[in-house]
Amino acid sequence: xxxxxxxxxxxxxxxxxxxxxxxxxxxxxxxxxxxxxxxxxxxxxxxxxxxxxxxxxxxxxxxxxxxxxxxxxxxxxxxxxxxxxxxxxxxxxxxxxxxxxxxxxxxxxxxxxxxxxxxxxxxxxxxxxxxxxxxxxxxxxxxxxxxxxxxxxxxxxxxxxxxxxxxxxxxxxxxxxxxxxxxxxxxxxxxxxxxxxxxxxxxxxxxxxxx
Length: 211
Fold this sequence. Notes:
This protein has 10 helices and no strands. With 211 residues, the protein is mostly helical. Helix 6 packs antiparallel against helix 7 (131-147) and helix 7 (131-147) packs parallel to helix 9 (167-195).
């Protein structure tokens, strides 16, 4: 079993742009917002490559829109797309990239630990044809990365308000997904800090004496 191509989530801004490369800065995104969002996307992709085997997790077939093929090609080579390349995308497409890569890794993780039934449930939600169910499937998969085990059906249903398509519920689901992304990045940063070698006190004292 492999994850099917993910549909596009477009609630936040209406229809995602059909144009693959967005050369003009969207009116609602300032230069500083774009810089921060690009950095977030770079860190996210690198974390998935380092910790969740992103290249292997990506399905063989991926939708040609809204994320450009060149972005997928880079990730399949275990290479984070350049900041310039990511900056050429709209904020909505960068968000979709983060969501799709996270879902792919969540699906791959569930496969690796033997939860084929949960993988099938995620596929059913993402193929239901409505956005509430799609975001519910995304919540299931990202929560699986955060928890290391699949969340209960009750938890996913409650977080997505039973896969509601009401604007307020969709916005809440999107906020939960963003918080899960930040949580995974924060955990990875903490793990890197804990793994970093501690400075040798003797060398440190010697350096102070020399100064």
